Amino acid sequence: MSWTAVGVDFGGTKIRAARIAGGRVEDEATRPTPPEDPTMILGAVTDAVAAVHRPGCPIGVAMAGQIDRRSGVVRSSPNIPGRNIPLGPSLEDAFGVLVILDNDVRLAAAGEWSALGETPSLLVALYVGTGIGAGVLLNGHPLSGSHNLATEAGHATFIPGGELCSCGRLGCFEAYAGGRALAQRARRLLAQRGLGAAPLDAAAVIRMARHEDPAAAAVWEEAVEALRTLAWNLSVLFDPEVVVLGGGVVRGAPELLEEIRSHVEEQAWSGYPPPGIVLGHPDAAVLGAARTAWLEYHGG
């Protein structure tokens, strides 16, 4: 079925808006995410959408944080300062169309599902970037939970009483394998060796681990173990046909795909096929946001 809608991937450094027609990107625009000022941020989102929007096209916005999907209000997000920002109503006023806001990982999972040639009955998407998130699609419909908080996989417990996570809890998977945590843990170990606290990001930690730096290698080894464990836990909990891996850390370490695939295959139930482990689609967030908005607009 032919359909057209606009999807927005609202990130911490850039805002990407794309007009999706029949499941393909027809036109797109990006704008830098302004720092600190919610008014400027709302303006940047509106400007990006205006560059690709056509009259009557519904709009879907994928962003990190706690989103009230019914009202279109951003309760809190690492990408926009303040609380209770009325992003959805603001875009509806500007364009006069239905606007859907939801968690970026959940909408990206919907994009992964629709991008696959043969859509699975149950799909799990695991994204490892600055943080860690997951989405679950059952027959194309996302599992949201009673408070739109389902599948916050990064904040399940990896090591009880372990590292402090950004969420304030101890021992979360994100505190060991999220990009921010990788950099923080490596800096701490380097400082303990008297090597200072040089600026690091996840990509630098991975490069250093490949060159057998002891601090980086120790941090990366534990991160890989966390991700292998998390992927298997998600497989046990949901029995998916497919597990999709995405996010900046995964893109920066292609070997993770085989590490996770091997572990899941080793642990698989006897007599049952393991889920397929595949890399994510680069347009998943905008595709899922657009398709979800279009389906809701048409009562799907």
Q: Might you state the CATH topology name of the largest domain?
A: Nucleotidyltransferase, domain 5
* N- to C-terminal distance: 13 Å
Spatial ordering of strands, largest sheet: 3-2-1-4-7
| Strand-residue proportion | 15-25%
* Total helical segments: 10
What is the level 1 CATH name of the largest domain?
Answer: Alpha Beta
Please compute the radius of gyration using only Cα atoms: 19 Å
Q: Which homologous superfamily in CATH is the superfamily of the largest domain?
A: ATPase, nucleotide binding domain
Could you say how many structural domains there are in total? 2
**Molecular shape:** globular
Descriptive account of the structure:
β1 (4-10) and β2 form a beta hairpin. The chain has 10 helices and 12 strands. It folds into 2 domains: 4-108, ATPase, nucleotide binding domain (Nucleotidyltransferase, domain 5, 2-Layer Sandwich), CATH 3.30.420.40; 116-279, ATPase, nucleotide binding domain (Nucleotidyltransferase, domain 5). It has helices at residues 38-52, 87-95, 104-115, 174-177, 179-192, 202-210, 214-238, 248-252, 255-267, 284-297; strands spanning 4-10, 14-21, 24-32, 59-63, 66-68, 73-76, 99-103, 122-128, 132-138, 141-142, 242-246, 276-279. It has a 5-stranded mixed β-sheet, sandwiched between helices. A 5-stranded mixed β-sheet has the order 10-9-8-11-12, sandwiched between helices. The chain has a two-stranded antiparallel sheet with strand order 5-6. The chain has 300 residues and is α/β, with parallel strands linked by helices.
